[in-house]
Automatic annotation (TrEMBL):
Gene3D superfamilies: SMc04008-like (1.10.3340.10). This is DUF1244 domain-containing protein. InterPro entries: SMc04008-like_domain, SMc04008-like_sf. Residues 26-91 form the SMc04008-like domain.
């Protein structure tokens, strides 16, 4: 991997974060159903990447990096309770991919 590859991947990641921050209508459960990952997964992956470089980052700090604000604040503003339909679709998706 070249420095250019890393720069382009970083730019694409920043664009993904920007997109997810503006698409507050797309719930994490919807992302999990359709894509098998959500904003919290991205935060976990970010934290794991930091750990491989000897950087200790707690879950809240990683989530704030992904959400652009503290997770509790984002959740209160944008994340309603999952509907029964979403929960059923999530359970079906979990069965399909495990």
């Amino acid at each position: 991997m070249t420095d250019l590859d890393t720069e382009l991947e970083a730019a694409a990641f920043r664009r993904l974060l920007e997109h997810l921050r503006t698409r507050t209508d797309v719930q994490n459960i919807d992302l999990m159903i359709s894509g098998g990952f959500c904003r919290n997964c991205l935060a976990d992956w970010y934290r794991e990447a930091a750990a491989t470089r000897g950087i200790e980052l707690d879950k809240d700090a990683a989530r704030e990096r992904i959400y652009g604000e503290p997770f509790a604040q984002w959740k209160a503003k944008y994340q309603p309770e999952a509907t029964p339909e979403q929960l059923a679709a999530f359970a079906a998706a979990q069965k399909k991919h495990t």
